Amino acid sequence: MRPLVLEARDRPGGRAYTRFDLPDRPEFGAVEVGDSYTRVHALARDCGLRIRPSPPPGSAGLALHVNGRTLDADHWSESSANPLAGPERAVLPPRLEAHYLARTIPIARATDWDAPSFSAHDRSFTAVLRERGMSEAALRLVNVAGNHNHSDDVSVLGWWRGALARRSDTGAGQFEAGAATLATCMAARLDGSVRYASVVTALAEAGGLVLARLADGSEHRAGHCVCTLPLPALGRVRLRLPLQPAMRQTINRAAYTRVTVALFDAEPFWQEDGLPLTMWTDTPLERLFPRLHPATGACIGFKAIVNGAGAAAVDRLDEAAFERLALATFARIRPNATGRVRYVARHAWGTDPFAGGAYAAWPPGMVAESRAALSRSAGRVRFAGEHVADAPGIEGAIRSGEAAASAILEASS
Ligand SMILES: Cc1cc2nc3c(=O)[nH]c(=O)nc-3n(C[C@H](O)[C@H](O)[C@H](O)COP(=O)(O)OP(=O)(O)OC[C@H]3O[C@@H](n4cnc5c(N)ncnc54)[C@H](O)[C@@H]3O)c2cc1C
Q1: Given 144, 167, 190, which residue is the final one in a domain?
Q2: Domain boundaries, position 193
Q3: Has residue 71 been placed in a domain?
């Protein structure tokens, strides 16, 4: 078969988005590749792409800024900035969720997470965390930079799935030349063609073929279609397909985690305050990570990752207002940064029309039904992508795409 890929953007990779024009090739999207990502590793080898080991999490230290105070995370338990009581005081804010959720995981294997037999556990983070003893003060911290829009709105099953999937990882790595190089290589090797800037606006089945209509008015016909659009993007497409009602509901109710990633250049102000480069904060910048020069390893700036309600708030700001807020925040949390940080760029996944968020975040009570709906084809259209996959992240996206392609080949042989 000769596939035709219709891609809305002018680049391959989707949510694997590397800024190749900047010296450290920073990632706006996917970064980490687990050891268990067997398909990603195999494709990287085929493409001659190196995945270098990531430093162990926390190995370079952590600074916190909470309740107006900046401190080394080593001093958290005795700090007056720490609003927690009892044994919770010793748990760092970014570890609070795991502290309660990893204790007992009621599903046996990562792939069981969407089985109807586990639906009794399809409850919100808030419900499970409270039941396990989390205080209201800790719950407030969890909602500062948790990997969800709000702990009330997301099923905890997804967290358990991720934790179980990571248990088989002995480590993780990162694409040396950028995560998007894998998609670039796959696009170049495809025995078919890729059409960029091709926004699909309608998908229909007619006369034994799938018809895709593009925003430029052109139409493409094919015997089969693999549709990998994230659900918020799929919700914008007119679908004249034999869709099950549960699938329509899944598209309509899809709630993706809002994530905004912002990049900053910086002069080495940290040499003066001596604090770690990585930060967890309760400010509008939420989490900060160093951008390291690939040749020298020197820190050349920061990447801020803002999640959920925080992302929604900064997404409302225009560039000038965001820059003012970000630089004022740097000056507040690291006074030595004043005048020594420069805003470079940001990407808001929540407002990106071709994503609608960083990843699917299933509302409580919907997991089994939604995932079963996604696993069914709609006539000649099969669905694939992170939201359909059994495995996490880019590994899941690739595996589910391969499974859909294999099913088409089998059906037509
Ligand atoms: C900030 C961030 C950090 C992440 N970190 C990690 C990580 O460390 N490790 C990991 O494994 N994963 C990570 N992920 C998740 C990972 O990036 C995704 O799971 C994976 O890339 C999803 O692949 P996909 O093919 O399902 O979707 P996408 O990569 O989103 O591909 C869908 C494609 O459909 C296109 N499209 C959308 N609408 C249309 C339309 N109307 N017409 C034509 N084309 C359209 C899009 O442009 C896109 O290219 C992260 C994601 C984000 C945003």
Answers
A1: 167
A2: 4-54+178-255+370-411
A3: no
Does residue 394 have its Cβ closer than 6 Å to ligand 1?
A: yes
Q: Domain holding 314: CATH number? A: 3.90.660.10
- pTM for this prediction: 0.97
- Which has the closest alpha carbon to 4: 203, 198, 207? 198
Residue located nearest, by CA, to atom 19 of ligand 1: 393
123 falls within a domain? yes
Distances (CA, A) of 380 to 21, 209, 377: 40, 7, 7
Give the side-chain half-sphere CA count within 13 A for 244.
15
Quick one: which atom of ligand 1 is closest to the CA of 401?
25
Q: Is residue 67 part of a domain?
A: no
Domain boundary among 314, 348, 382: 348
CATH at residue 17 = 3.50.50.60
Separation CA 313–CA 304 (nearest Å): 14
In tens digits, the chain (413 residues) has pLDDT values of 999 999 999 999 999 999 999 999 999 999 999 999 999 999 999 999 999 999 877 788 999 999 999 999 999 999 999 999 999 999 999 999 999 999 999 999 998 999 999 999 999 999 999 999 999 999 999 999 999 999 999 999 999 999 998 888 888 999 999 999 999 999 999 999 999 999 999 999 989 999 999 999 999 999 999 999 999 999 999 999 999 999 999 999 989 999 999 999 999 999 999 999 999 999 999 999 999 998 899 999 999 999 999 999 999 999 999 999 999 999 999 999 999 999 999 999 999 999 999 999 999 999 999 999 999 999 999 999 999 998 889 999 999 999 999 999 998 88
DSSP-H helix ranges across 190-275: 231-234, 245-253, 270-273
The answer to whether residue 365 is domain-embedded is no
Regarding whether 237 and 90 lie in a shared domain, the answer is: no
Instruction: Determine if ligand 1 sits within 6 Å of the CB of residue 359.
Output: yes
* CA of 214, closest atom in ligand 1: 42
Dihedral sign (CA 341, 342, 348, 349): negative
Query: What's the 397 CA to ligand 1 centre distance in angstroms?
Result: 8
